[in-house]
Every structure is written in C-alpha cells, then in structure tokens.
Amino acid sequence: MLLIFLALPLVASSDATERDRQSMVRTQIRARGISDKATLEAMRNVPRHLYVPAAQRRFAYQDRPLPIGYGQTISQPYIVAFMTEIIGPEPQHKVLEIGTGSGYQAAVLAEIIDQVYTIEIIRPLGEQARRKLEAQYDNVHVKIADGYYGWEEQAPFDAIVVTAAAEYIPPPLVEQLKEGGRMIIPVGSPFQMQHLMLVEKKTGGEITTRSLMPVRFVPFERAE
Amino acid sequence: MNMLRGKREVNTSLLVSLALHSAAIIAFQLALMQLISIVQWHHFAYMIISIAMLGFGASGTLLALARSSLLKRAHWLVPLLMSTSGLFMILAFHITRLEVFQFDVYLLFVERSQFPILLANYLVFFIPFFTGALSIGMLFIEHAKHIGTYYFSNLLGSGLGGLLVLLLLNLVFPQQLPALIGLLSVIAGLAAMGSKTFRLLHVAIATAALIAAGLFLVRPGQIPISQYKGLAQALNLPEAEIVHTQPGIHGMTEVVASPALRFAPALSLSYTGPLPVKKNIFVNGDFYGVIPNYQRGQDEHILDYTTQALPWAVSSPGRILLLNAGEGAPLAHVFSHKPQHVDAIIPNRDVVRLFRHQFAAATDSLFFYEHLDIHRREARSFLASARDKPYDLIVLPQQDAFGGTAGINALQENYGMTLEAFRLMWASLSDEGMISASTWMDYPARTSLKLLASLVETAREAGIGSPGDHIAAIRSWGTISFVLKKTPISPGEAERIRAFAGERFFDIVLMPGMKDHEREQYNMVEDKMFFDYVDRILSGDDAFFQDYGFMVRPATDNKPYFSQFLQLSNIGYLSEIFGSDQVAFLELGYLIVLVTLLQSLILALLFIIMPLLRLRKSHRGKGGTLLYFGALGIGYMFVEIILIQRFVLYFGLPVYALSAVISTMLIFSGAGSLLSGRLSALPRSPARVGLAITGLLLVYTFLLTPILQWTIASPLLVKIVLSLLLIGIPSFFKGMMFPLGIRYLSEYDKSQTPWAWGINGSVSVISTSLAMIIAVEAGFTAVMTLAVCFYALAATVFMGHRLFFPVPASPAG
Asked: Strands A72-74 and A66-69: what pairing?
C-alpha cells in the first residue's frame, strides 16, 4: 500500500510531463508551421525535462531556451524542431551534430535517423549527455573533442547540425558535408535575436547560404 | 581633538578625516564599477551602483527623520560610521562572490527567482555608501555654519580619490582595490575618534577591517566572471589557460591560450586550408582581439578570405591609417599587403604594452615594424592633427559583434563614428584614397544601414552628387564591407571586386555597373527589403529614416551613439512586430538604462518624500528647499556629464581624461566652496552666484564646442591650460551653491538641512541616467540647455526668496 502511495506522485509527474510535451508540440511547434511527421513524433517522444538541469526542470516545456551551465543553453523546443525539419531527416541518413550540449537535439535526431554522431567540446557537458543518450539510444555516438575537425572517420554526412553559434564555419565541416547535403547553424547568442543559417553544398562543390527565421522571432499562435 | 568641544568650530583633524573618507567613497565607487564590469556587463555594474549610490539620498532621509537623536551621538557615531563604511567597502565585493549572491543574467529576464538575489547584491553594496554618506551628512549638518570649509574638504577628497584609483589600477588587481580603499575610511574613522564612547567597538571594527584587508590583499582570489562572458566561455575549452594577466587603467587584460581558439570572422566558405590557433585577449572578461601568428614577409592572411579584404581588391594602398586597430589581427592583415607606411590608432596602452613586451616574439615584433607608427590616443584627436598626411586607405574598426550586441554598446559614446569624424577622414584621404568599414550583418538590419548612411552623407557633404559611383559593398554569410572612394570606382576596379567576390562566394551589394542578381548569388538574405533600404539610403531618400523602425541616421557629435538604434517612440510598433518579450533582446543596453532610471526614480522619490512626514506644515519653505537643492543636484550632474563628454573628446585619452576632468571639477568646486564662506549667508549670495553660472553656461552652450574644435590640434600645454580655465571657472562657482544654500537653510530652518542633503544626493543619482537618456534622444545641446534652466531655477528660488522661503529667518534650531 505504501509503495502504491509512493509511486503515485511519480505516475502523476510522468503524466504531467507527457501532457506538457503534447501541449508543447501542439502550441509551440505545429502551430508555428512544423509539419514533418517524423519531427513532430520525435518531439512528442523525447522527454525534454530529462535533458535540462534539475533546477530548470519545471520550465522544461516552456517556450524558451534554458541555461544548462558553462554559458550554454538548451534551445527553445521550436528551434530544435525547426533545425530537425530543415535538414530533411531520413532514417538512412548519417547526421553529425556539433555541440551536444544537453543531448536533447541528438535525442530528437536519434528518434528519426539511424546514425547520429555528436561532438561536445566541454567535457563535463559531453560526459553528462553521453550518459543520458547511451541509456536511451544505441544509434547515438558521442565524442568529446573539438568540433572544428568534425568526425572524419565517419564522413561524409548527409546533414550537419551545428547547435553552438560560431564566428566561422570550420572548413573541415564543409569538407565532410556530402554534395547535396545541408548544414544548419544558429547565428548569435541566446541574449540576442538569433537567426539560423542554412548552408547547402551543391553538386560541384559550390556553397550557398540562406538566412532563415530569427530564432527568437517566430510567428506565434497559441491554439490550433 | 574632542568633537563635542569643537563641534561648532572648524576642526582640522575632522577635515582631514572627511577628505580621506570622501576619497575612499569615490574611489570605491570607481573600483566597484570596474569590478562589477568584469563580473557582468557594464550596464549591470551601472544598475547596481546607481542603487548603491542612493545611500546618499537615504542618509539624508534618516537624518531628516532622526536629526536630533543622531546629532546628539555624532561625537562617536560619525567616526564609527566611517569605519563601518570602510569595513563594508573591504567586505562587500567579496561577500557577493559567495554562491548565494550569484545571479544568472540570462534568467534575470525570465525568472522572478533571480530578483531576490539581485536585491541582495543591491543591499550589500548599499551599506558602505549609506553609512559613509550618513557620516558626511552628519558632519555637514553639525557644522552648517562652516559648511563651505567642510564641503571643500569633501570635494577635495573626492577629487583626489578619483586620481588615487587611476594610480592603483596600474598597481594592483581590481579585487585588491576595495581592501586598500576601505582602509582609508577606517583610518579616517580612527582619526576622527574623539570620544571614548564605544571605543572598544570601534577598535573591534578597525581590527576586523585590518584583518580582512590583509587577507584580501594577500589572497585576493578569483573574480567570479559570469558564465556568459567571453573569458568564461574560452576557459571552458580544452587545455584552456590564462597565460598572461595584467591589471591596468583600461581594465583587466587577460590572455587565454587553448588549441581550440581560432580567429576567422565570417570566413569565406571557399576557404579550405587550416585555421591557425591563436591566443585570445580579453579585457574585463570581454573578447578584445587575438594575438596573431605574424611573420615578416608573410603575404597572405586569413582575413583575405573575409569581406574585410575588399579595399585590396580595389587597389594596393600605400599609406594606411588603421583606426582603433585594437589588436594585432587587422595590423598583421594590413602588413601582409606590403604597405609603405601604416599609422595604427590603439588607445588601449595596456594592449600595446602586451604586444611590445610579453608577446613581441610571438608576433615577430610586429609592433616594432619600421613602417609602423602606433598612436596611443583616440581616433578623433589623431585625425584632427593629421591632415597633412594623406592616406590611401583609412580602415575603420569592425562594428558590432558576431550575432549582434543586443544594444550593449548603445550608450557608449563613439566619436570615431560620427559624421564629424567621417568628415575628418575624408579630408585626410589622398586623391585616390578610400575609407573602408565592415560590420556583422544583423537582423533586423541596423548597423549595416547606419554605416552606409554615414558613408553616403559624408560623400554628399564632400560635394559628390552620385555617391553610388564611389561606394562598393560586398556581403558574405556573416559580414558586409563597404568602401567609399574619393574618385569614382572605375570599371577595372569593379571587375576586380567582382572576381574577388566570386572566388569567395561573396555577393555584391553595391557597385557601379552591378547587376541585380549579383546581390544574392551565394548568400540569400531573409529580409528581401534589405536591398530596398540600401537603395533608398543611397538615393538620399530622407523619408526612409522616418519610416524605418530603428534609428539609422548617421551619428553626430551632438548624439555620438553610433550603436544606439532604439527609438523610444517606436517601442510600441516594434512590440507589435516582434512581440513585447522580444524587444528587450533587440536593444537590451538602452532598456537597462531605462530600468535603472525607473528604479532609481522610485527610490529617490521615496527618500525625498519620507522626511515630509516629519517636516509638518509648520515648516515653511519646503518648496524652496526642494526646488533649490533638486535643481542644484540635476544642474551639477548635467554640466559634469557635458564637460566630461567634451573634454574626453578633446584629449582623446578617455580613461585619463575622464579622471582628470572629474578631479579638476571637484577640486575647483571645492575651492569655490571654501571661498563661499566669505560671502554673506543672505539670499542674494546664492541668487547672484546662480545667475553668474546661468550666464556662463549659456555662453558655453554656444561657444564651448567651437572653442574646443579650434584648439584641438594645439600643443598639449595650451590644451591643459585652456581646459583648466574652461572646466575650472564654472566648477568654482558651482561649488559655492550647495554650501550657500545650506548656510541659508541652517539659519532659516535648521531641521530642513538634512532633507536638503538627501534631495541633493537622490537627485544626483537620477541625473546621471536622465542625462544619458536626454543625450540619446535629443542630444548634448539639450542636456546643456536644461542645465542652464536648472541653475536659473536655483537662482530664481533665492531671487524670489520671500515667496519660496516665506517666513523671516527664525533663530537657528
């Protein structure tokens, strides 16, 4: 009997996060135009609250980025969804993520894609994310290293998701992107109006970029 | 010396104590500004200190509410308060280093739980200012008859305190400053101690202060830098270490090495080579630049693969002027193109020292290169005296920062980017010369448009009818670079630009003969209207500046805020477009100043109104007191801010000029205060002095700027003498007004003197933020005009003293 009572809050809590997650997908993601089924399903499945620090857990499903320490943030849910959708993920794809951070973006990708490679430069963050990801997925490979060099042994990649903004795009990453591949990068810090940039490698090697919606400026609709 | 015995007379040891303590308070304020600027952004430092400084206002309130009770105990309380203030100066910063006092800047905007932590920070820093100001206020009221002498001591001490910090910044680490400064107040307290009452407590406080100071001097510990600052983030990288630390007048300079630190801002996507690892320089925890791996004879540089290389696609300039070069990378880039001569303007002496000593070998003695002259001054004063040396290329420092600065530099005066500065640059160009400027692309577009508007206006003012023939601009995925050429860009030059851009996947935004499709060949912008904005600016369509949501008109010396884009009148409109919670992220810096003003205003009003509970109806003349001391507080600070602005530009050495100007003002004001004792306490004295200041400031409104412009290129000695006169004369008279008012009030209604002290203290703090906002919105001329009005108001109060102070002067007490 006692066990049942002790377990109740956990069940209730799990139900609550499930509800929050469904609501997050409905009001923050679908309502803003994300329509890729696989992306929406992945966003529904990954328990975001497990990827944020304990002190921030109650805000996990809010419509904003959250600090995860070391000056880094876990992106706003919509941005994770947007970055996932924009690379056009397919199960057979091989995707590289630069900046594992909390591990949340890698988890979302792992729900859709067979091979996710992710690199984190800050050791404590990388180790924490590795523990969480390896407990949940066997198709995510975490490396703690300088993302500048990419993951040459596994190249080329169909898509590269850079989650940490950088002043320059490392030439090895451009090199490791397949022709016809896409790379998505945020520009700016969480304090500012960020926007995303899509880098496309055309057949023949020509590179083009496209500025996309500003990360913090999105058309907002509260209900479907 | 017993305070009780000598309380109505001038007490020399008390005057020395007051001067020491005043020096400590101003020095502590400046040191704190430096320290909090290292921990957080400087706007937060300003926000926290403005609240702490309201300790002056609060002390006046307490004095007004408990005047007789406090003054009865003045003989032991004043020294004890001085020492307590000193003890808390030593402790305050170190207390806020504790984990519980650390607030998350990012969460401050979204989580209420951060507010109590911010409030706790306010409180800790409030204590030393409050106790310190209370002791000063008590002395002023206790010695109201000799207020001129005591105020002189206060101002003289404050002036010297400013200079003391200047000296100490070069000698010790910032976190050691409070220990040294706090001891001054403790010594002041001990020197003022005349009574045996609470002697033991006093000795205990002094001993605690001494032990704490010793501890923090020997083991100053690390400054807990916000995790979001550049330095903290660099130190998260593998094998990152600080390889050099140097305290200095420009801030704390630190050099970080890590195999993961590279520098290639908005590098071309066609670049396939390796990126060299470079050490990064941080000043006060913010990224400042890199230490380039320069080698003589090197003929290629990584910046050749950025839009910054545009001028070398146009021609091969021989004589180059690099404005606010800041650090080594732009210099190394320029030298890789083998110029004949380079003048580099680097106002930060600490950084120059770094390159000339510690990192001379690493940069192949770049800063000793025979064709290079380093000028350690601001661009404007250099340009004003360098017109006889025409340059083939003038390179402006890169504006903005990667991802924008969120308005963090919005209220940073930048006289190097005003139209007046561009005019000087144009005049310094050779016949085929050009000005080059680059910036990060921001969204919504602000910096890039203001930069273009400045170049277009410069060309028009120089008599060029079609600026489009003289301007070229190219854009990468992250940056945009402009070139404004004195002669039209020739077809050959245009072809070279086209080839350069094509090889690097850059797009052409402006150029004679450009085709429309060239604007978005490689890098598609999100807002297609961007090109329309560019064309409207180029065509001289003034309506564009009215229509656009941000302030992108060129900056001028009257409003030298190049990085200020937010227009208060447009906040509603921007909120509609971006959402009210997003506007803060567009132009955060300016909004923090508005918040600072608002919170100071609420507290200041509270401090001013509270004493009215005690000053009942029987106390007449309250309106006169409020108007006079309120007007003085605002007027004094407005003039101070104007003079600082004008003379910092005049000397071109911001940090030195700032301290020298403030100290000169305070010392001259002190002299005025001392001599005010010779004037009668009758209302005609403040009325006449007030009128004299009003007249003088009126003349300054029209003549100060022209005088400074005419003499900016004069020999230093001439400039110093002229400055002493121009700063000293109004300061001297301004220093008379407060003591004259206090003397009159002490005769008229003694119980109002503490209130006057509180009003003056509270209003002074508000005035600083208010002056900044007025300067941004309406320009410095408006600030000066208002200062004239406030001094005229102060004079009017005493000209019409029968109206403002209605009953005949009652006996003191």
From this structure: antiparallel
- For tokens 């209730």, name the residue: A12
Q: Is B722 exposed, middle or buried (0-12, 13-18, 19+ CB in 10 A)?
A: middle
B2 touches chain A (CB under 8 A): no
B406 in reach of chain A (CB within 8 A): yes
- What are the start-end ranges of the E strands in B691-779? none
**Confidence band, pLDDT 50/70/90 cuts, at residue B744:** very high
Residues of A in contact with B525 (CB under 8 A): 211
Would you call B11 helix, strand, or coil by DSSP?
Answer: coil
Q: List the single residue in A122, A206, A213 with the smallest CB-CB distance to B526.
A: A213
DSSP B769-798: HHHHHHHHHH-HHHHHHHHHHHHHHHHHHH
pLDDT tens, N- to C-terminus, chain A (224 residues): 444 444 444 444 577 888 999 999 999 999 988 999 999 999 999 999 999 999 889 889 998 888 898 888 888 899 999 999 999 999 999 999 999 999 999 999 999 999 999 999 999 999 999 999 999 999 999 999 999 999 999 999 999 999 877 788 899 999 999 999 999 988 765 555 567 899 999 888 889 999 887 555 433 333 33
Give bridge partners of residue B429 from the DSSP assignment. Answer: B391
Q: Domains, chain A, ranges and CATH?
A: 2-214 (3.40.50.150)
In this complex, do A171 and B104 lie within 8 Å of one another by their Cβ atoms? no
A71 closest CB neighbour out of B232, B260, B275: B232
Contacting residues of B for A209, CB less than 8 Å apart:
269, 477, 522-524
Q: Could you identify the residue written with the tokens 């004043």?
A: B78
Selected residues 224-283 of chain B with any CB under 8 Å from a CB in chain A: 226-229, 232-233, 236-238, 259-260, 262-267, 269-275
Q: A171 contacts in B (CB within 8 Å)?
A: 267, 271-275
Write down the ipTM of this complex.
Answer: 0.85
Q: A75 catalytic, yes or no?
A: yes
> Which chain B residue shows the shortest CA-CA distance from A63?
B110
Q: What's this model's pTM, rounded to 2 decimal places?
A: 0.88
User: Per the omega criterion (within 30 degrees of 0), is the bond before B444 cis?
Assistant: yes
In terms of Cα–Cα distance, which of A167, A210, A162, A168 is closest to A186? Answer: A162
Nearest to B265 among A70, A168, A189 (CB): A168
Note the Cα A141 to chain centre separation in Å: 15
Taking an 8 Å cut-off on Cβ atoms, the answer to whether B523 and A69 are in contact is: no
- Residues 415-454 of chain B whose Cβ lies under 8 A from any Cβ of chain A: 441, 443-444
Burial environment of residue B571 by CB neighbours within 10 A (0 to 12, 13 to 18, 19 or more) = middle
Q: Pairing between strand A177-187 and A157-162?
A: parallel
What are the Cα distances from residue B593, in Å, to A122, B598, B785? 35, 9, 22
Which member of A35, A75, A102, A211 is catalytic? Answer: A75
Please tell me the distance from the alpha carbon of residue B303 to that of residue B479, in angstroms, as a whole number: 12
User: Cα-atom radius of gyration of chain B, to the nearest Å?
Assistant: 28
In chain B, count of helices (H) and strands (E)? 31, 13
Distance between CA atoms of residues B521 and B536, nearest Å: 21
User: Is A71 in Cβ contact with B233 (below 8 Å)?
Assistant: yes
